[in-house]
């Protein structure tokens, strides 16, 4: 983090899928918008109930101001960190978080508490109505990463250690 600055909340977009028969489709898509994140400053702690994120992003050479970002949230329900993935792009850090409980119903909200956070928004580009998830049989239903344009890029799991894509 840069000196003497208060971290900002990055914009966080989320969507979800649910299935009681296909665990790979029981996911939360989370996009943290941090343009030109400095990967060496990225810190992500993912547990079964929480996500803590901090990073410095920006590039003065591209006229993108350098800023510190941080947030922490408690999920509405449990996730499985070892089956969750992360991908860093030039604009965002993407997460696909595997829900722990297989059920057809969507979570009513991302966070456990009912308080509204202005930096957390629904990602309508990835959202699918709850009734359309099961039984529609589209190719994208087979690969939850297809919804964020990262399918087939060899995204490693988040759990454990071993490189920049691992927590």
Please give the number of β-strands. 8
Give the radius of gyration.
Answer: 16 Å
Helix content: under 10%
Helix/strand order: EEEEEEEEHH
Q: What is the spatial order of strands in the main beta sheet?
A: 6-7-2-1-8
| Binned strand content | 35-45%
Broad shape: elongated
The biggest sheet, with number of strands, parallel, antiparallel or mixed sense and barrel status, is:
5 strands, mixed
Contiguous runs where pLDDT drops below 50 for at least 5 residues: 135-142, 149-154, 160-164
How many alpha or pi helices?
2
Structure description:
The radius of gyration is 16 Å and the shape is elongated. The relative contact order is 0.25. 5% of the residues lie in helices and 36% in strands. The chain has 167 residues and is mainly beta. The strands form two sheets. It has a five-stranded mixed sheet with strand order 6-7-2-1-8, with no helix packed on it. It has a three-stranded antiparallel sheet with strand order 3-4-5, with no helix packed on it. The protein is built from two helices and eight strands; from the N terminus they run ββββββββαα.
Task: Spell out the blueprint of helices and strands.
Elements lengths: L10 E7 L9 E7 L9 E4 L3 E10 L4 E11 L4 E10 L3 E8 L20 E3 L7 H4 L5 H4 L25
Keywords, separated by commas or semicolons:
167 residues; mainly beta; 5-stranded mixed β-sheet; 3-stranded antiparallel β-sheet; 8 strands; elongated
């Amino acid at each position: 983090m840069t000196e003497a600055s208060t971290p900002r909340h990055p914009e966080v977009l989320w969507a979800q899928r649910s299935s009681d028969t296909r665990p790979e489709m029981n996911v939360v898509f989370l996009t943290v918008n941090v343009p030109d994140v400095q990967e060496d400053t990225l810190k992500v702690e993912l547990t079964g109930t929480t996500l803590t994120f901090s990073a410095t992003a920006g590039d003065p050479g591209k006229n993108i101001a350098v800023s510190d970002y941080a947030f922490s949230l408690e999920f509405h329900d449990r996730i499985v960190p070892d089956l969750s993935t992360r991908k860093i792009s030039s604009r965002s850090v993407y997460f696909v978080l595997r829900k722990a409980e297989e059920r057809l119903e969507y979570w009513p909200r991302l966070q456990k508490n009912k308080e509204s956070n202005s930096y957390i928004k629904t990602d309508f580009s990835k959202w699918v109505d709850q009734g359309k998830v099961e039984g529609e049989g589209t190719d994208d239903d087979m690969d939850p990463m297809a919804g964020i344009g990262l399918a087939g890029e060899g995204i490693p799991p988040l759990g454990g250690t071993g490189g920049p894509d691992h927590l």
